[in-house]
Design a protein that fits this description.
Blueprint: H1 2-28, H2 34-61, H3 70-76, H4 88-112, H5 115-139
């Protein structure tokens, strides 16, 4: 159970960092794709919030203590903060990389999780896999 809680907490941290990163992108996106990407980034940070809450609450149900500070998020997360220097295409490429990493890491959670946790993981992975496909298509 400790291993499962640690893996879930890593994803709580990732969703916390992703939430802030997506706000950065939402606020600082520029150029001809502004009207496309500005609302997309808002939709994605709203989704990141939902996943953050869902995973943290699952941890609480399992007796865990989810990370709940920015300091903890940065210590535990495997995705990186926005640098503030990303171009529009860099933003998209970073999100693809982040989503792919989270999908891969959730495979570890799936392997050792109970049925309810596995169901949660499948839902998140399904959504992120669709985002990956759409973002890759955007770059073509």
């Amino acid at each position: 159970m400790d291993k499962l809680l640690a893996l879930l907490n890593r994803e709580v941290a990732n969703f916390g960092v992703l939430y802030i990163k997506l706000h950065n992108y939402h606020w600082y996106v520029k150029g001809t794709q502004f009207y496309t990407l500005h609302p997309l980034f808002e939709k994605l940070y709203d989704e990141a919030t939902e996943h953050l809450d869902t995973v943290a609450e699952r941890m609480l149900m399992l007796g865990g203590k989810p990370a709940a500070t920015l300091k903890e998020f940065l210590e535990l997360a495997t995705i990186k903060e926005a640098t503030g220097t990303e171009t529009t295409n860099d933003m998209i490429k970073e999100l693809i990389k982040d989503f792919e990493l989270i999908v891969k890491e959730l495979d570890e959670v799936f392997e050792i999780g109970d049925e309810v946790t596995k169901d949660m993981v499948i839902g998140i992975q399904s959504s992120f896999q669709k985002h990956i496909w759409m973002l890759k298509t955007y770059l073509m």
